[in-house]
Each structure stands twice: as structure tokens, then as C-alpha cells.
Amino acid sequence: MKTAAKKSKKPVSALQIERHILLIRGEKVMLDSDIADLYGVETKTLVQAVKRNIERFPADFMFQLSREEFEILRSQFVTSNRGGRRYAPYAFTEQGVAMLSGVLRSERAVRVNVEIMRAFVRLRRILASDKKLARQLRDLEEKYDARFKLVFDAIRQLMPPPAAKKRPIGFIWNRD
Predict the structure, then answer these.
(1) Side-chain-side CA neighbours of residue 106 (13 Å)
(2) CA-CA distance, 93 to 99, in Å (whole number)?
(3) What is the CATH number of the domain that holds 70?
(4) pLDDT tens digits for range 27-76
(5) Is 67 part of a structural domain of the chain?
């Protein structure tokens, strides 16, 4: 969660972007500081631009993390309570990131925004392929479970029934 802007001309890689996509409240989001870092602006500049255009960011596009969510996030990144942010970060959904392109119009922001949109699409495809793979695996399990049940039933029929319990061999002394 950096606030200092990077004035780099290097293109942003898909891996850099994907590392910043988090799952919060069941939504895939990016935090304001990560987006600002990728855009090469300060976090406060990004937040000010958003606040000037707040009508473009309804709750399903952007939300501010609760104190508890912020503390959990801070502990995951092992950051100090001293210094740093004085307010909880804003989280932008895919639609919120898309809306940012209309708010921040620098050349870098446009290029990075296109890459962020591509990263969200890739993640959606991966999740869809995982669902398809899970469905195929479930179908295979159902198919083969039925076949293996037949095999186990056939084996059980070939096995002799367990022998009746016989009296133990040897001397048994009864104290009574």
C-alpha cells in the first residue's frame, strides 16, 4: 500500500496487476493505493479525483473498507500502525476501475487501465475454466463410482463369508 507515485515509463505487467487484485466482501477489487501506484500518481490525488466525481462511483463500483477489514488487511501485509494511512482504503471493483479511466486521463492511466481490464477478464476466464474442470471431475467421479461399486460388489460375492466365531483353543480357567 504505497502512497508515493512512481514516475516510471516502464509498461505495467499483467503479473503486477494480478497481484493487486484482492477478494474482499466476495468481490474482486483493487485498492486505491495499488491503483494509484500503477497509474503513477499519489493515492491522495486519485482519491481527490474520485471524490470530485463521486456520482460515477456507486456502491457496486467502489466502497471504503471498514475499520475491521482495514486492520485485517494491515495485519496480512504486516504494516505498522504508525505513519501511513489515516483512513481506510477504497476498494474498486472491475466496473469502478473502468470508471476511473474517465476520471484520470493521463496517457499512463489509460494504458494501465486497459491492462487492468485485461487482468480482470483473464481472472474471470480462469475461474470459469476452474468451474468447468470441477464439473467434469464431478461427472467422472459419479461415472466411475458407479463402476467401482459394481466391481466391489462382484468381489464381495466371490469372497467366502466370514467364519463363525469358534471357541478359543486352550485352557480357560474360571475362578467362579
Answers:
(1) 13
(2) 10
(3) 3.10.260
(4) 889 999 999 988 888 999 999 999 999 999 999 999 999 988 888 887 77
(5) yes
